[in-house]
Amino acid sequence: MPAIRHSSKRKPPPDGFEDIENDLLIFSNKMKDAQNKPPPSGPRHQAQWEIFQISHQRSRYVYELYYEKEAISKKLYDWLLKNGYADAMLIAKWKKQGYEKLCCLRCIQTKETNFNSTCICRVPRAEIKGDEDIEHDKREYEGDVDGGNTCKFK
Fold it and tell me: Where is the composition biased (Basic residues) (predicted)?
């Protein structure tokens, strides 16, 4: 039987959490709505698309606050990652060269594809035949400045 967590044993959030708490609460409410929504008729994996989108947006929000805007402290950033407010593994990939615009970790997992390859969004735009936009997993991929593709959720 798993241990019961009591709120009295959790550490309080560090200073600065009050400034971003409302934004994180909005993401939390969106996530609850997406989880409680009945699944769409169609392929089973489509039911998770909105959840992936919200998770990506929330993680990107925390990433930008810490790395780009430098609006939160390291202590608050670590606390947010530890308490599940952002996806630490996805943020770790964003810090690596070539993965700055990665939409989710599923795009680089080769075991989830039929041919043990990465997602189409990881293929440089110049190497894709045809001019049309690529649609995959309800994300639209558009070429960016350096010739690569970027995942854009619809």
Answer: 1-11
